[in-house]
Amino acid sequence: MATQEHQNSKDAQRKTRLINANCGKWESIFIRIGSSREECERFPCNLSVSEDNGLIEAQLTYQQSGKIARSAFREIPESMQIEAAGHWSLGPQFLTQEFWTTEFCICRPHERRRAIVRQRRNWLESMVVIVEWRAGHDHAAFSGDLPRPIYLSESRGETTSTFEVMADGVSLGLELTLFNTHKQQATTWTWDSASITRLYGIDNQLIQEQARTHPS
């Protein structure tokens, strides 16, 4: 009983962190980067995230078409990681035996940077970079339009591949790093000094926070 109460309290704390950092109305720019490592399309959206009596709902409106996508959940998904600052990640959603997608989000009080990543253990297939700011607040990173086109600058190490998000030869402070050995795979999304990492074992299953060892 005590163990269950402790888990319920922990889950409630995680949910509160998620709500506090992410609920509200957001202006968004979605930028799709293909396997060529270059921007292939972008589109503006409006996002509303709300919580009512424990139910978290998200409504995404595509400005150009008016299309609306909705999602909702009451219990935090088992595969969702939530950091103390409200940063989160979710996945993997397997597309094939080798490829999966994961979503990452790093939060600031009035801005977020998200990435939807399609990858395998040691290869980035494509990604969507999402720049967001709260409705009614100036876009702190870019006073005008987001520079275009954006692209990825790739650097490789023995066990890592790092993809830095660039525009006009200048870093936008965003990067994705893939780490891979025969025992572990990690994907890290970084915005300036903040980052969030998902770590997988040899079976491609997520290694939960309490069981982690840092990649080395």
List keywords for this structure.
216 residues, mainly beta, 9-stranded antiparallel sheet, 5-stranded antiparallel sheet, 14 strands, disordered C terminus
Architecture overview:
The chain is mainly beta. It is 10% helix and 54% strand. The chain is built from one helix and 14 strands; from the N terminus they run H-E-E-E-E-E-E-E-E-E-E-E-E-E-E. A nine-stranded antiparallel β-sheet has the order 4-3-2-1-9-8-7-6-5. Strand 3 and strand 4 form a beta hairpin.
Secondary structure layout:
Layout: H1 2-22, E1 24-33, E2 39-52, E3 55-62, E4 68-73, E5 81-82, E6 88-94, E7 100-107, E8 111-120, E9 123-134, E10 150-156, E11 160-167, E12 170-180, E13 185-191, E14 194-200
Antiparallel strand pairs: 1-2, 1-9, 2-3, 3-4, 5-6, 6-7, 7-8, 8-9, 10-11, 11-12, 12-13, 13-14
